[in-house]
Design brief:
- The complex is a heterodimer of chains A (245) and B (313).
- With 245 residues, chain A is an alpha+beta fold.
- Chain A has 7 helices and 11 strands.
- Chain A has a single domain, classed as Alpha-Beta Plaits (2-Layer Sandwich), CATH 3.30.70.
- Chain A has helices at residues 25-34, 87-91, 118-122, 144-147, 160-164, 181-189, 234-244, and strands spanning 11-16, 44-45, 53-54, 59-66, 72-78, 97-99, 106-108, 128-131, 136-139, 170-174, 205-207.
- Chain B is an all-alpha fold and 313 residues long.
- Chain B has a single domain, classed as Formate dehydrogenase/DMSO reductase fold (Up-down Bundle).
- Chain B is 69% helix and 2% strand.
- Chain B is built from 10 helices and 1 strand; from the N terminus they run αααααααβααα.
- Chain B starts with a helix and ends in a 15-residue tail after the last helix.
- The chains are: A alpha+beta (245), B mainly alpha (313).
């Protein structure tokens, strides 16, 4: 369906830009799970050659921020934001791209996708990548085959990227429920949207880096006391130099 | 944006085809072009060949062309779907009109209605083609009112040049067509210049700061991957500024200046020389529009590049 309805439940991710260490483990675990999951396989061309290319649902970019203080490096994981107004779904001519009413997850039906790539043009975030082998578009499924998977322990029913993050920088939950842990986290930390000016209303939120300690003149370290005064006698200075060798 | 030749050829050829078809539909029932059945066959064959080759070429762009029929289902929200339906829908009145004209030599009654219907449908189809691009928010160079204007005017212009050439090759002449061709060339050059001024002097609302939501001056430090991926190949296509200036000049010369001079020549010359000049004008305009379409893609920047080092999009 290229027309869609937005339900109450809005499953999505909250990504903490303060704690992300940029290890790319989420991207690797995403690739590992999803190359055997709902949209499998995720192709890799020339994987050990010079011109390696392939489909990944999650990619980690790194930016430098000059905030007028110390400045900082921010690692920035980016995957599908499962927007409330997904233009990728609206432009799809076949109905292969759809948004689920029950939980808001945006998916592609690989059996009806014609591979026109228009959805990837309509996504401002670059969340969709084309599978040249299958001739269809692929994207993050929010690990739909994990989060509802009763064969997994309940604790493991989260997206692969969330399960693997060693810094707990990724959180999964219902952002449509203001009382959920993720919604509270967004409220507490001032979570924000990406490119809100385009009006896609992404469900995924990003938590900004916490303010760094301001650099102050008073923090200039005190000078250490000299071990030996350089105004000793010629003999003492010679001893000092000889012992310092 | 990556300029895929299949799509560039599609919009150029089908644009000219629909322009030619619409003008034929308006001209034939009112005796503005030769009513000869042979002429009818020639002009409709050329228009349908341009349209059909264009549409077939556009399916070459698909990952699964055998599923192209599925694209007719989502007309409620998708301009691509609407364009597919209308392009198919235009064939129906064209068939009625063509059968009446070519087989029975009739252009009256229901055949006039069919002719007017196909003219309207052809114009809406071209509008839908333009709206596929003009509806995409992440691409500032596409999401503006100049895009449908340029597509419509250039479709009219190339259609008028082809019809003018065919009329003259048929040994007839139609001064309204010469005037329409000249006026549409001027209008085409003016709209395209305005489009280029628009994309040169304005930029989209998104920056690397809004794309990341980070406060401060944000600069790109390191990418997620060392080699190019689909996003960079498809959306990160870049063209050097100096090349784009040169190509704009080529598009203006081939698309507008040369057709203008050749159409004027065909108006003052007589016989085969006039027809030859009119044919050259149409061919030159097609080449110019191909270059213009190539630039339409190559100069368009997508917001995804903000995640790969661009500061504005």
């Amino acid at each position: 369906m290229t027309s869609y309805t937005v339900g109450e439940k809005k499953l999505g991710l909250v990504i903490d830009l303060d704690t992300c260490v940029g290890c790319h483990a989420c991207a690797v675990n995403c690739k590992e799970w999803n190359t055997g999951g709902h949209s499998a396989p995720l192709p890799d061309r020339d994987p050990y050659g010079a011109d390696v290319t392939g489909v990944w649902f999650n990619r980690i970019h790194t930016f430098e921020v000059d905030d007028g203080e110390c400045g900082r490096t921010v690692h920035f994981p980016k995957s599908c934001l499962h927007c409330e107004q997904p233009a990728c779904v609206e432009v799809c001519p076949t109905g292969a791209s759809y948004k689920r009413t029950e939980d808001g997850i945006v998916l592609v039906n690989a059996d009806t996708c014609i591979g026109c790539k228009l959805c990837s043009w309509a996504c401002p975030y670059g969340a969709r990548e084309f599978d040249d082998d299958a001739g269809v578009m692929k994207k993050c499924t929010l690990c739909i085959d994990r989060i509802y998977n009763e064969n997994l322990e309940e604790v493991d029913r989260v997206p692969a990227c969330v399960a693997t993050c060693p810094a707990s920088a990724r959180h999964f939950g219902d952002l449509g429920d203001p009382g959920s842990a993720v919604s509270r986290l967004v409220a507490e930390r001032g979570g924000h949207d990406l490119m809100p000016e385009l009006g896609y209303k992404p469900v995924n939120k990003y938590l900004p880096p916490r303010a760094g300690r301001a650099r102050q003149a008073a923090e200039t370290p005190e000078r250490l006391e000299a071990v030996a005064a350089d105004t000793g006698s010629l003999f003492l200075r010679w001893i000092d130099r000889a012992l310092s060798r | 944006m990556h300029p895929a030749f299949s799509v560039i050829f599609f919009t150029t050829a089908s644009g000219a085809g629909y322009g030619l078809l619409a003008l034929t539909g308006i001209g034939a029932p009112f005796g503005l072009i030769p009513a000869d059945r042979g002429f009818g066959f020639t002009v409709l064959a050329l228009a349908l060949a341009l349209i059909t080759l264009g549409l077939l070429s556009s399916t070459a762009h698909l990952g699964r062309p055998e599923r192209a029929w599925r694209a007719f289902s989502q007309w409620r929200t998708s301009w691509l779907s609407r364009e597919g339906l209308l392009s198919l829908g235009t064939y129906a009145p064209t068939a009625v009109f063509g059968i009446g004209w070519v087989f029975f030599g009739r252009l009256d009654g229901v055949f006039t209605l069919a002719a007017l219907a196909l003219a309207v449908l052809a114009a809406i189809t071209v509008y839908c083609t333009a709206m596929i691009y003009a509806s995409l928010k992440p691409i500032h160079a596409w999401r503006n009112a100049w895009v449908p204007r340029v597509y419509l005017v250039l479709s009219l212009m190339s259609g008028a040049l082809w019809l003018n050439a065919l009329v003259q090759l048929w040994g007839a002449s139609a001064s309204w067509l010469t005037i329409l061709a000249l006026l549409s060339i001027v209008a085409g050059a003016w709209t395209k210049e305005r489009y280029w001024t628009f994309i040169d002097t304005t930029q989209g609302p998104s920056t690397v700061e809004t794309a990341t939501g980070l406060r401060g001056t944000v600069s790109f430090l390191d990418g997620p991957h060392t080699e190019a991926n689909y996003l960079l190949r498809e959306m990160g296509y870049r063209i050097a500024r100096k090349h784009s200036v040169k190509l704009r000049r080529i598009a203006l010369a081939l698309g507008f200046a040369l057709p203008l001079v050749l159409t004027l020549l065909s108006a003052v010359a007589a016989g085969p020389a006039a027809a030859f000049a009119a044919l050259l004008a149409a061919l030159s305009a097609m080449l110019g529009i191909l270059v213009e379409r190539w630039l339409f893609f190559a100069e368009a920047k997508h917001t995804v590049t903000l995640y790969y080092g661009a500061t504005t999009a």
